[in-house]
Amino acid sequence: MLIGVLAVQGGFxxxxxxxxGLGAEVREVRVPADLVGLDGLVIPGGESTTIVxxxxxxxxxxxxRAHHAAGRPVFGTCAGMIVCDAGHLGLxxxxxxxxxxxxxxxxxxxxxxVEGIGGEPLRAVFIRAPWVxxxxxxxxxxxxxxxxxxxxxxxxxxACAFHPELTDDSRLHALFMAMTTRARDGAPEGAGx
Length: 193
Fold this sequence. Notes:
By secondary structure, this protein is α/β, with parallel strands linked by helices. It contains five helices and eleven strands; from the N terminus they run βαββααβαβββββββα. The protein has a seven-stranded mixed beta sheet with strand order 2-1-3-4-11-10-9. A two-stranded antiparallel sheet has the order 5-8. It has a two-stranded antiparallel sheet with strand order 6-7.
């Protein structure tokens, strides 16, 4: 399995390390050619405006949309969730509010019950975190915090408002890898979850 991590800005190194730890082959994505042959793509946290500008300047906007249109999964975390929303790349039928929980000083951690990862709560690190302001009927809620959607899935797009790569809990990345395996092998969505 070959998974790319967008590396134009933000915390991509921690995603690369976590995916390697789960046995994936990984590639930094900086230019359109880096998307060729990928089974899945992670759009990491960072600063959403800077990431969007980096995507545009590198000519990655249409290639990322083509990756998604071909049924290959995308996982957006924190700013990556914003980049995936309807107002940006349009990969997710949702509107995401930037800095919804506050600025840097309001960063926090919380235990979340996340649908589809089993058992124990997931420790979530929220840093200048967004939340899903509104979502289409096809967007499945996986986790909420204080009544706000903070993890969602729509088809082959998984998105969360926090940083799962900053803990030693790899279950969300494992869920993304399972989605990627199903997409690569042609299994129907929802099979095995």
